[in-house]
Amino acid sequence: MIKSTQMIDASEALPGRAHAMPSMNRHYVLDTSLRPPFPAGSESALFGMGCFWGAERRFWEQPGVYTTAVGYSGGYTPNPTYEEVCSGHTGHNEAVLIIFDPLRISYEQLLALFWEGHNPTQGMRQGNDVGTQYRSAIYVSSADQNEKALQSREHYARRLIAQGIGSQITTEIAFTSDFYYAEDYHQQYLAKNPGGYCGLGGVGVCY
Fold first, then answer.
1. Fewer CB within 10 Å, N or C, the chain?
2. Of 180, 169, 152, which Cα lies nearest the Cα of 23?
3. What is the pLDDT of residues 151-182, one digit of tens each?
4. How many CB atoms lie within 10 A of CB 158?
5. What is the Cα–Cα distance from 179 to 19, expressed in whole angstroms?
6. 148-151: which pairs have CB atoms within 8 A and are 24 or more residues apart?
7. Residue 37, preceding bond cis, omega within 30 degrees?
8. In degrees to the nearest 10, what's the CA dihedral of 65, 32, 137, 127?
9. What is the pLDDT of residues 1-59, one digit of tens each?
10. CA–CA dist 64, 62 (Å, integer)
């Protein structure tokens, strides 16, 4: 099956469903809630950086991160399944949601982990994973996050040029309020399957 590298229009999206797919409520590693309400003062970040299995592990290992979850963002189909997302007909991205304590880890630090943890120059793919659901993305929820994300992209682009890497960053930065939790077996996948596929790789440039 050839994975699509062309984003669909909303009019072409699968219809989805009215109700959310069932998924677990507790983090397999951190034993914290995957769903709100979250602790007072916590904030959220939402990133797409290729296969969400490896991306999620990168963030749950960080001090100051309360919980993480994987799911689907940036598309059109309500409450999609994994198979629907992989078809390329929902417009969604594989995404990782991070709930964090800003007094212990900043949004800027999470952005640095995002940039260093994958290759943001590959368009609709990440390494061997090809398709629109693997595109690089920062989904922001406020004007402050948007400004910080834009600044970080400019900073990283300058770092690529300084180190002689001429590739253009293809990371999208967009406002979104949609995050659909992925099925149970995807949540904290690499903790449940230590030898599982990770899929993450950078371009050798530090933030």
1. N
2. 180
3. 999 999 999 989 888 789 999 999 988 999 99
4. 10
5. 13
6. 148/107, 148/108, 148/111, 149/111, 149/173
7. yes
8. 90
9. 446 799 999 999 999 999 998 888 999 999 999 999 999 999 999 999 999 999 999 99
10. 6
Helical (H) or strand (E) element with 73: strand 65-73
Taking the C-alpha atoms of residue 206 and residue 11, their distance in angstroms, rounded to an integer, is 40
Residues recognised as catalytic = 51
Secondary element (H or E) of residue 69? strand 65-73
Q: pTM for the whole thing? A: 0.94
Q: How far is CA 161 from its chain centroid?
A: 25
- Determine the Cα–Cα distance for residues 94 and 135; give it in Å rounded to an integer: 8
**Helical spans, DSSP H, in 27-142:** 52-60, 82-86, 107-116
Token duo for residue 76 = 């059109």
What is the 8-class DSSP label of residue 131? S
Report residue 146: phi and psi, to 5°.
Answer: -60, -45
